[in-house]
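Re: the request from the purification team.
They wanted to know what the chain is likely to look like in 3D before they choose a buffer screen. I agreed to run a prediction and write the result into the notebook, where they can find it.
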Amino acid sequence: MPLTSDDAYFGRAVNINLTVAEEVTVSPQGDIQTITLKTGHTRFSLGNQVQTAVATVGVNLYAKLTDIGSTANNRAAQANLFATVTDDAENMNDIRAQEFLGDAPAWNTSSSTTGNTGG
């Protein structure tokens, strides 16, 4: 049974992952890790606590989003490589045995054509 792969599917998977990787940490208002909450006067202690908590969440969230972006980039690269491998396999669907042997490495390195006669 010949191998066939859906190149359009792999292309969409690559594009979606690259888009996620590019946009996951981008915000028109700036990086979430530098978020600043305006709490009013500096002597408003409850506001300062909330401001610190929000800043901490921003840093942690940015780290998680960066991980997601890295994973998406890796998945895009993997999908590209998988598409290349399946394309190579598809190219061998109709190959004749003699053509395959001509492209294969020389597995038998001895001078004999009847097999390994070494002892």
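For the purification team: The longest helix spans residues 45-91.
Please add any questions underneath this entry.
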